[in-house]
Amino acid sequence: PAALKAIAAPYPHLHFYPTGGITEKNLQAYLQIKQVIAVGGSWMLPRDAVASGNMELLKTLAHSTLQVARGGVGLAMGAKVATASIDQSARLWSISSGECLMTFTGHTDQVMCVAFSPDGQLLATASTDKTAKLWLCSNGQCAATCVGHSGPVYTAFFSPDGCNLLTASHDRTAKIWDTTSGACERTLGKFDRTVHSAVYSPDGKMIATATDDSEVIIWDSASLQEVRRITGHEKKVFSVQFSHDGGLLLTASMDGSARITEVQTGKERLVISGHGDWLRCAAFSPDSLKVVTASGDGKAKTWSAFTGQPLLTLSGHQDWLRMAAFSADGGAIVTASKDGTAMVWRADNGERMRKLDGHKAWVRWAAFAPDHQRRLSVEFAEL
Fold first, then answer.
1. What is the rounded CA–CA span in Å between residue 29 and residue 52?
2. SS3 for 155?
3. Edge-first strand listing for the sheet containing 80-85
4. Phi then psi for 82, rounded to 5 degrees?
5. C-alpha separations of 184 from 164, 181, 318 in Å
6. CB-based contacts of 193: which residues, under 8 Å, 6+ apart?
7. Tell me: the pLDDT tens digits for 258-280?
8. pLDDT at 29
9. How many other β-carbons are positioned within 10 Å of the β-carbon of residue 91?
10. Which of 2, 31, 150, 331 is 20 to 30 A off residue 126, Cα-Cα?
11. Alpha-carbon dihedral of residues 178, 181, 182, 188, nearest 10 degrees?
């Protein structure tokens, strides 16, 4: 951009349409030059995507480019993040001010995970005290305690309809709980090792589990029968997530890689690597076009989920990262670290927007609150 500014200065009557060297990282810098009327670049529509002839993919890529071009995240006043810490508490934060709005206390050991219900009314926490808890986001009161695991509970995530909570535990089981009563409805207990993570597919028809080995198992959520085993990693898998349409599965492993696999066929689509240490977490963007990874090297990175090319590196934490996730609109990323903080970043340029500092120990998890009244970014025109 500096060179173009220098060229444009003596010729205010000229307009420019740069196409070389344009990336997501510098797109905004070019568009801020008054004489630049448009930008281009092959990164917007990779050659392989064009060759595929997949119009839905091309349309989604175009929308993603438009989101970047329209500028930033513009976090709405009132946007919130929840964090879970080994200091036995969870907290709710204002992103705009960095203020802690509410503290959830009641667990008697480390809080390992935090998740919002789809309607944003409930907060779920998972703890090494062998329980999961459901909290009212309106007043911080505990609405239900899920008792039944015989070991630490590592993750707790809601079903898409919010009626159930799915937990993963060191006791080699995953359990499904009623979110109204906190009662255990069913147990998925066919594992030989610790279950690190268990998540629902977007339509709620499947469950994916990551255990203390290199395989991931996909289950039918109604019958709890095994549907498919996903292989490819060389070491234990820590996290698993479905794509927005349920067609792909994203996994992160101690072997230092994240992998994208087709759910229906088990075919490996992409291997992502480039961190200096093992991965604890990988997450799709809402449109599944990007991936964010969190590593023991203290960094988070974003990648193209189509090509595997690196996009951004998020540096600033002082210790290794446990997780990273996109906001619901894809405009922001939250990271949680052993350094005792969570951080919120712009997803388009990697700028740090907020440091959430207040826990007394390692922050294990963080989650954006859903917001049905407003978007975290500007509205985008339909193509």
1. 31
2. strand
3. 100-105, 89-94, 80-85, 363-368
4. -110, 145
5. 9, 9, 39
6. 172, 211, 212, 213
7. 999 999 999 999 999 999 999 99
8. 75
9. 25
10. 331
11. -30
